[in-house]
Amino acid sequence: MSRDFKKEFKEFYVSQKNPYILNIPPFSYISFLGKGECDESNPSFKEARETVIYLVKYIKNNLNYDGAYEFVLPPEEILFYNRNARKENLEWRFMIRVPEFFSERDFLPLINSVKDKKKLPFTKAEFFTLNEGFAVQVLHTGSSSSIRKSLQTLTDYAAKYGYKADEVVHEIYLTDRKRTKDEKKEKRTVRIKVSL
């Protein structure tokens, strides 16, 4: 049976309507840095998304690693380094989590295996480990344009308990944005790292 991280680690993926603070362990990702709007109209985002999905699916379908197991493709995630900037100036990291059996030493062999299979900018992809630690998160329902309210809720909640919110915003997409025609029904976990 395939492991589904979204169900197995539910507390780290599916958030609640009210903000709360939690301690998140390190997770590793295949990622791709980019700039501009995070939708298919932006060529940079489109190639980032296609590249990362292709690489993670390749791992999923070629389990030639020690301790490998079958897994469900994890949700798409984005780190925004300047979430309050204008859309065209957004700086982000698109990423999808990889299982713990896939390590940094496996990354270069992976790139060498796929570089001639499809015309995608594989050399721009990165193996990335995120160690967030303590963070505050909340469920956001609605489009990206309405996210400022959720960000303010998180910042205010952190301050209430004596924490300072980081500037980097972590979004985990719980619905498929390409299939969800009504933006008001989009669901994502929004998370910000906090410190004392």
Q: For the CA atoms, what is the radius of gyration?
A: 17 Å
CATH evolutionary superfamily: Regulatory factor, effector binding domain
Bulk shape? globular
CATH architecture grouping: Alpha-Beta Barrel
The fold-level CATH name is Multidrug-efflux Transporter 1 Regulator Bmrr, Chain A
Count of the separate structural domains: 1
What would you call the structural class? alpha+beta
- Into which percentage range does the β-strand content fall? 25-35%
Largest sheet strand order = 1-6-8-7-3-4-2-5
Tally of alpha and pi helices: 5
Overall mean pLDDT = 94
Distance between the termini: 41 Å
Task: Estimate percent helicity.
Answer: 10-25%
CATH C-level label: Alpha Beta
Residue ranges: pLDDT <50 for 5 or more in a row?
none
How many strands in all? Answer: 8
User: SSE order in H/E notation?
Assistant: HHEEHEEHEEHEE
User: Quick one: biggest sheet?
Assistant: 8 strands, antiparallel
